[in-house]
């Protein structure tokens, strides 16, 4: 394993470890009187212990002979001792926290390693964005084992974006020791139909012997076979038990996902209920995307373990799913995910196997959290704020939002959003022009939407109409807008929309709600318009304030953030607005806002 | 994975594979109407199929759409379709066959990959011996994924041997693409007590990211912890269920061994009987050492599967043990050991899950055996016989075996062998001198034994007495004599002993039985005195003739071969004879043949 994920690589310390195991030199730390969660054999070993030296486990079982006068002895008092929890697929940016603050939030919950895919920031800052994430993650002991983004931009030629990742970039990145694999290969049609780009990108990963991570959101078994031919080792996109089971059967680690917005565990847990005797080594748990308030109120993998057990999964199986099954899938099982000699001493003590209260966390043999409190030292940031600021856009005016119309009544295309779902519906509506302009019609819940290129200040901005947000008066804006993360604004009137936009342009990005010329709430996300360097509790608080503001202006969608963040994502049906225009996401072509105007498809 | 173990590395053919999976281009081969042994989930999938192109699996499940006019369609007619069987720890030399002939013998039994440790020939020819094994193995499609010998010589300074392997050698060998790991690290005391040599050797393996294979034959849990600190990933030395279970619990793949002489499966299978609910991912099956007659009469991994099921192991679990569990342990599970898209098309059809009759074998998508008959092409040998001949020893005479004695009666140390066990007992006996010489005393089953340095013709030869072979008249000789493989001779009289020795010196090594000045039987092993280039059936025949000859001269030991082959192995208690003298294998020092003569320990 790379030296960056341990205190010492095993090959440098085998003699130190064996000396401790033999009782010839004392351990640095010993845990005694624990119930060992043995993920190798799926058993509890009573009255077990662990001896640690040089950041690694030297002995497991009866380890009293490893105690010397200087040894730190931890009495587990019968608590459960398990390997540190691993989140095998996660986008840190969704938490709106920096990697460092994310780590501070999750370590006390027992998470000791994550496999982040920084594809959000990569869309903005390219390789430099990934490097920022890697560097910032080094400020805490959490092992951030990066996967390098595979699909930037997510959809080509439909929008202006900040970066493009090529096979050559992937080839280079696979040499970085902080990179353990390729980020989710979202372009599954490209893999299925033999597109050169995505195949070249997976090829560079396979050539380097690293892990291709997957993204296959379909029921189609034929397509899954074709997708697996890319070498994709895991997938977090199963929303039904059938999807998850088929992946497991085909040797693909199926993540049962439980994120803040994607709550698939209830469904996917049925795999194990309906097939109680199957081998579960290809099942895992992951968060994918977690918002700050979830991290603060519910936790991280401990919360997902709790949920798994609620859904009827055996607790020992659930712990295997978040430890050994993940590390084995990434070929890291000789390093982590199991309490065994030679492995890194990433260990947690858990009070019970139902609530999963994590009372002690060790990483590389050091106590990093106790009773929910972070004890690890956090290094100061090493980045320049300016380097991660992406807001190349001049202030806007109300008149910039104008939609001219030379007819008294115009039929327009309207994007209809559906609460809690990522698909939109393509609708139409007749709008009456005033002063040669088309306006929002809040009474019919038809709002105006604008998307601004914030990468190049190109002036390639576009406007349309959206239905479903329910705002009575005001506007909301966000720079979290997958995957190009251009500035998106929705509102009832041009002046409020301009104010919302300018609020974000000024603070470097984030989310804002505006009404009657007043800013009701703003969540500044100065790092690429995606993340803040505030702490998780601080962010949870400002996000809660924004939530209240959304409701104040009349929005009654659940998680309207996410709905707005997907409004420009041209790879999901049916109708989207990017900064270049309205996209028919069924036919994959631009379409006109005005129905009937030079529209070859109609 | 190395390109040497597949037709094409996956990264070169992902597009070809996905095209077949999608039905856009036809498969080369399709198997339909099979019961798929799904080792990922431990289930049978009824009416399943597999589509193959470029040597790899493109699709699994319903694959009828992958059939084109040129596709070879194999109707499994309801037979079981499983991954090719893998033997994760094996010494080819024990079969007395070349790698090529070994492959010809095992492929029809469903073996598609082996992890050989060529440490026998390495003791004779060093790195060149390993290279010979690698080159010879390339003559057939069997995937010989070598581990590079770690302990040559096995015991230092007690005998003359042909080669020495250093950490620098290991460092070089780890760069060879045919080498997947380090051969069994037998020096477990060296690991436990921090010896520099063995730790440096495992360090070079770990640094290269390859697999350290283990050898831990003890019950001692403390010692196992210390041994595991070397990174050893697996071990084939468990002889009790307790030993095997402890290894599994500590994340070490425990091979349940069933070789020709080491029949540990009956005992080790109890792990699964006594713990029916444990996770079995760290359990496996291997042969370690198999003689030609076993290969011909019983088979290879198919035989061991049959034995496993006889011992009560669930058939699907047993198949997992010989496929996915092994490939995962070597981090080769993305390549083999599972029937899934992207993996190599190493596949077998089995008639049932009790007899395990293998009726069809494919390697890299090509049919290589059918109904027990090898169909694969075998390439001609590429080596010079002279290069692998190791017999640097002039012919001997009867008088060379003389043991002078100046007392009328002398108490001597006698090695007592025990049939079927590797340990010996240190005994003494009073011998009466005749003409100033000590002789064998067949009436008391006390025979003479001599060991000759065959590496350097140094004249460093030694003589002693052995009990337990039961030979009435005659002699037997062998150049298979672990681990230095010097020439060893046991007999009742010096003339027959000289004849037996000279028979082997002349033919380049092997095994011989002699009586009354006549050679009763000889098994020539011209390749390093260890192997023949004859076929397995031919070798089984000559070995059977030798067996009869042993019996003719009165030997009633089971497998006397093996007993004699271990007589010089100074790392096993209690008393051994190497070419340099008698070794007290409890105190690890030389001792004198004559009791009472300058013997500081007594």
TrEMBL record, chains A, B:
<comment type="similarity">
    <text>Belongs to the metallo-dependent hydrolases superfamily. Adenine deaminase family.</text>
</comment>
<dbReference type="InterPro" id="IPR011059">
    <property type="entry name" value="Metal-dep_hydrolase_composite"/>
</dbReference>
<dbReference type="InterPro" id="IPR032466">
    <property type="entry name" value="Metal_Hydrolase"/>
</dbReference>
<dbReference type="GO" id="GO:0006146">
    <property type="term" value="P:adenine catabolic process"/>
</dbReference>
<dbReference type="InterPro" id="IPR026912">
    <property type="entry name" value="Adenine_deam_C"/>
</dbReference>
<feature type="domain" description="Amidohydrolase-related">
    <location>
        <begin position="80"/>
        <end position="368"/>
    </location>
</feature>
<dbReference type="Pfam" id="PF01979">
    <property type="entry name" value="Amidohydro_1"/>
</dbReference>
<dbReference type="InterPro" id="IPR006680">
    <property type="entry name" value="Amidohydro-rel"/>
</dbReference>
<dbReference type="GO" id="GO:0000034">
    <property type="term" value="F:adenine deaminase activity"/>
</dbReference>
<protein>
    <recommendedName>
        <fullName>Adenine deaminase</fullName>
        <ecNumber>3.5.4.2</ecNumber>
    </recommendedName>
</protein>
<dbReference type="InterPro" id="IPR006679">
    <property type="entry name" value="Adenine_deam"/>
</dbReference>
<feature type="domain" description="Adenine deaminase C-terminal">
    <location>
        <begin position="423"/>
        <end position="588"/>
    </location>
</feature>
<dbReference type="Pfam" id="PF13382">
    <property type="entry name" value="Adenine_deam_C"/>
</dbReference>
<keyword id="KW-0378">Hydrolase</keyword>
<keyword id="KW-0464">Manganese</keyword>
């Amino acid at each position: 394993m790379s030296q960056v994920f341990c205190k010492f690589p095993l090959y440098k310390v085998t003699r130190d470890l064996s000396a401790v195991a033999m009782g010839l030199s004392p351990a640095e730390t010993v845990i005694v009187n624990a119930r060992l969660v043995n993920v190798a054999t799926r058993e509890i070993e009573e009255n077990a212990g662990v001896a640690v030296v040089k950041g690694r486990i030297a002995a497991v079982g009866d380890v009293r002979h490893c105690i010397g006068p200087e040894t730190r002895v931890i009495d587990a008092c019968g608590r459960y001792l398990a390997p540190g929890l691993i989140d095998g697929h996660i986008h840190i940016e969704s938490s709106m926290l920096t990697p460092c603050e994310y780590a501070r939030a999750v370590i006390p919950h027992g998470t000791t390693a994550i496999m982040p895919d920084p594809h959000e920031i990569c869309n903005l800052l390219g390789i430099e964005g990934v490097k920022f994430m890697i560097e910032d993650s080094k400020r805490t002991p959490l092992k951030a084992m990066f996967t390098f983004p595979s699909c930037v931009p997510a959809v080509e030629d439909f929008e202006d974006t900040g970066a493009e990742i090529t096979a050559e970039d992937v080839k280079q990145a696979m040499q970085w020791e902080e990179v353990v694999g390729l980020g989710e290969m979202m372009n599954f049609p490209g893999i299925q139909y033999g597109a050169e780009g995505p195949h070249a990108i997976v090829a560079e990963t396979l050539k380097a012997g690293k892990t291709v991570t997957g993204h296959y959101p379909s029921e189609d078994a034929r397509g899954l076979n074709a997708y697996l031919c890319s070498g994709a080792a895991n997938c977090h996109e199963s929303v039904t038990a059938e999807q998850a089971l088929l992946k497991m059967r085909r040797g693909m680690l199926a993540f049962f996902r439980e994120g803040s917005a994607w709550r698939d565990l209830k469904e996917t847990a049925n795999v194990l209920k309906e097939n109680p005797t199957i081998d579960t080594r290809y099942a895992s748990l992951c968060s994918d995307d977690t918002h700050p308030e979830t991290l603060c109120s519910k936790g991280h993998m401990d919360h997902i373990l709790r949920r798994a057990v609620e859904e009827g999964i055996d607790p020992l199986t659930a712990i295997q799913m978040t430890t050994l099954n993940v590390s084995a899938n990434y070929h890291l099982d000789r390093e982590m995910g199991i309490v065994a000699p030679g492995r890194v001493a990433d260990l947690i003590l858990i009070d019970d196997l139902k609530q999963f209260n994590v009372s002690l966390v060790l990483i590389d043999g050091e106590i990093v959290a106790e009773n929910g409190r972070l004890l690890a030292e956090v290094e100061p940031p090493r980045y320049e704020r300016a380097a991660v600021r992406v807001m190349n856009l001049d202030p806007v005016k109300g008149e910039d939002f104008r939609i001219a119309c030379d007819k008294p009544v115009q039929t327009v295309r309207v994007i209809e959003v559906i609460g809690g779902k990522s698909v939109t519906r393509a609708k139409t509506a007749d709008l009456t022009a005033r002063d040669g302009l088309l306006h929002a019609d809040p009474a019919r819940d038809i709002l105006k939407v604008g998307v601004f290129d914030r990468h190049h200040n190109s002036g390639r901005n576009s406007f349309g109409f959206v239905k479903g947000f329910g705002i009575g008066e005001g506007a909301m804006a966000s720079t979290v807008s997958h995957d190009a993360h251009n500035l998106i604004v929705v509102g009832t009137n041009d002046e409020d929309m301009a104010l919302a936009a300018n609020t974000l342009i000024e603070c470097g990005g984030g989310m804002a709600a505006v009404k009657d010329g007043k800013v009701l709430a703003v969540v500044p996300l100065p790092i690429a318009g995606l993340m803040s360097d505030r702490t998780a509790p601080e962010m949870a608080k400002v996000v809660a304030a924004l939530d209240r503001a959304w409701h104040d202006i009349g929005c009654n969608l659940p998680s309207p953030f996410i709905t707005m963040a997907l409004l420009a994502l041209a790879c999901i049906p049916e109708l989207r607005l990017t900064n270049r225009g309205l996209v028919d996401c069924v036919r994959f072509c631009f379409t006109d806002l005005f129905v009937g105007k030079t529209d070859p498809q109609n």
